[in-house]
Specification:
0% strand; single chain
Length: 106
């Protein structure tokens, strides 16, 4: 990619590709979901993955962007964090219990 030669990728293109790749992964992992649910989840996962990847980098270091790292469901990435946070929420929903959150610094 070289902007001087006229080769560039817009941020919109990156987001569209992230959502497309997230949709493929969601479809593979949860084929029983409806198409609407798959698209909704893919939107959250794709956007979150790109945002997390950009925030996760130290501003004084160069950004190395790879899809394998950004959309990794197994290690420190947005999809992984989203999945880890979803598990307790699903358990609480099944139990019909609302978690009580306390402010520790109040």
């Amino acid at each position: 990619m070289s902007s001087r030669r006229g080769h560039y990728i817009t941020f919109d293109d990156v987001l569209i590709e992230a959502v497309r790749r997230a949709y493929e992964e969601v479809s593979k992992r949860s084929p029983m979901l409806s198409e609407e649910e798959k698209h909704t989840i893919a939107d959250f996962v794709g956007l979150g993955a790109v945002r997390y990847a950009l925030v996760d980098v130290d501003s004084s270091k160069p950004v190395v962007f790879t899809w394998e790292r950004v959309l990794n469901f197994e290690t420190n990435s947005a999809p992984y964090v989203q999945y880890i946070m979803q598990e307790p929420a699903a358990s609480y929903a099944k139990l019909r219990v609302t978690p009580q959150i306390q402010c520790l610094n109040c």
